[in-house]
Design a protein that fits this description.
Shape: globular
Strand content: over 45%
Radius of gyration: 18 Å
Order of helices and strands: EEEEEEEEEEEHEE
Number of helices: 1
Strand order of the largest sheet: 1-2-3-4-5-13
Number of strands: 13
Distance between the termini: 50 Å
Helix content: under 10%
Oligomer: single chain
Largest sheet: 6 strands, antiparallel
Number of domains: 2
Length: about 160
């Protein structure tokens, strides 16, 4: 069985973590690393319009038809436990929205129906798939929104090669 090592290169609050083979020659996985929280993260659009390096998270679902009661619907085998500590929720529409993060709460009994909200489609009921997914999913409460300042801010700069 191969042995893998994590190598982190620091850039202030962020690092780049490479998972390599024993000789350090083959990078098998790379991701940004938040040095403050000691978690892998990826750059995504935040609800305040800026870029943030958010930790891996499960998407929000809703225990209501009007998308007001935020929960986490965790597909077993798709979202391993270390990455299921956060719930990501899109707020707003396609042109003026972005992500907010919540902590995943305690496990709850599966709701009668769930809904999802997408930037393009808005809120839609997913009750048609719930019968088969209840046995394959874990449902959890989602906590209050976390402040965006808890996550490393980022901006995109494009190097055009011109001075």
């Amino acid at each position: 069985m191969p042995v893998f090592y994590a190598v982190t290169t620091d850039f202030g609050p962020l690092g780049l973590r490479l998972l390599t083979d024993r000789q350090g020659a083959t990078a098998v996985h790379a991701h940004a690393w938040d040095n403050a929280t000691q978690q892998a993260c990826s750059f995504q659009l935040a609800a305040d319009g800026g870029g943030r390096c958010f930790p891996f998270a499960v998407p929000a679902a809703y225990a209501s038809d009007n998308c007001t009661s935020v929960i986490a619907e965790i597909a077993r085998g798709v979202y391993p436990e270390p990455y299921a500590d956060y719930v990501r929720e899109w707020q707003g529409d396609v042109c003026s929205g972005g992500l907010v993060m919540r902590l995943r709460g305690d496990v709850i009994v599966a709701p009668e129906r769930t809904s999802t909200r997408t930037p393009a489609d808005g809120c839609r009921s997913m009750s048609h798939h719930l019968a088969c997914s209840v046995e394959n999913n874990t449902y959890c409460n989602a906590g209050d929104q976390l402040g965006l300042d808890a996550f490393v801010a980022a901006s995109i700069e494009i190097d055009t090669g011109e001075e």
